Amino acid sequence: MTLPVFKTLVERVRAQGGGPVVLALDLGTRTGWAILHVDGRVAHGVVEFRAGEHPGHRFSALRLWLSGIHKKSGPIGLIVYELVQFSGAGAQTQHGAQLYGGWKATVDAWASLNVVPIEAVPVATLKKFITGSGNAPKDDAGRLRMDARRAAKGWAPYAGITVAEGIAQQGFTPRDNNDADALGLLMVGLERMVGRGAA
User: Fold this and answer.
1) Domain for residue 1, yes or no?
2) Residue 44: inside a domain
3) Is 199 a residue whose pLDDT tops 60?
4) Torsion of CA 62, 82, 111, 87, to 10 degrees
5) For 58-196, where are the E strands, in sequence order?
6) Which residues contact 109 (CB under 8 A, 6 or more apart)?
7) What is the reported pLDDT for 2?
8) Domain range for residue 99?
9) Contact 10, 190 (CB under 8 A)
10) Nearest in space to 163 (alpha carbons), one of 144, 186, 145, 181
11) DSSP string, 135-159
12) How far apart are the C-alpha atoms of 178 and 176, rounded to whole Å?
């Protein structure tokens, strides 16, 4: 990725006549979010959706949060989220897949009811866009795990940047890897808008 890309993408969207409010989501219990307002301002952070007193509470809370963003920030014109593919049969993987499916279904249903288009971005696509490598680690902890696996195979340590480092190179200070992913997803969504010429 040529750096800094983000400001160039925003300028290109403006040159095409502006664009809609874009909301990017890294779905999870700690959902990373980033929003590009019509005037080019970016807000980002992390919001938590926990089960509470009822297992469905987290999904209801997500729906209410989306409606609040939609009302407060101007109508959302595009939602971009990370498309996660799960593999493995472990209980933790199964539980994570079930929760992700609930968050994804909640966003999809909300977007359908509010006539908001969706862009789903595979994890490897996000990583490659930000770092140049589709298997880059998301943060320093991920780099340590990757380097341990590589060392066990007799390979050299990973030499590239993490997703969090790539986002920092764009001038952002993400709170965690969820926040960093959301900022990266926002950039991928903007590039797709610019590429279509439909800002």
Assistant:
1) no
2) yes
3) no
4) -80
5) 76-83, 118-122
6) 63
7) 44
8) 6-196
9) yes
10) 181
11) T--SSHHHHHHHHHHHHHTTPPPP-
12) 5
Please give the helix or strand (H or E) that residue 56 lies within, else none. Answer: none
The total of structural domains in the chain comes to 1
Q: Is 37 within the bounds of a domain? A: yes
60's tokens: 């209801």
Q: For 32-51, what is each residue's pLDDT tens digit? A: 999 998 878 899 999 999 88
Residue 157 resides in a domain: yes
Structure tokens at 178: 């969820």
- For the record, the structure tokens of 135 come out as 């298997």
CA 87 → CA 13, 17, 95, distances in Å? 37, 42, 12
Paired tokens of 162: 């993490």
- Confirm if 161 and 1 have CB atoms less than 8 A apart: no
| pLDDT score for 1 | 44
What is the C-alpha separation between 40 and 102, in angstroms, rounded?
Answer: 31
**pTM as predicted:** 0.88
Pairing assessment for the beta strands 21-26 and 30-36 based on DSSP bridges:
antiparallel
Distance CA(113)–CA(152), nearest Å, equals 49
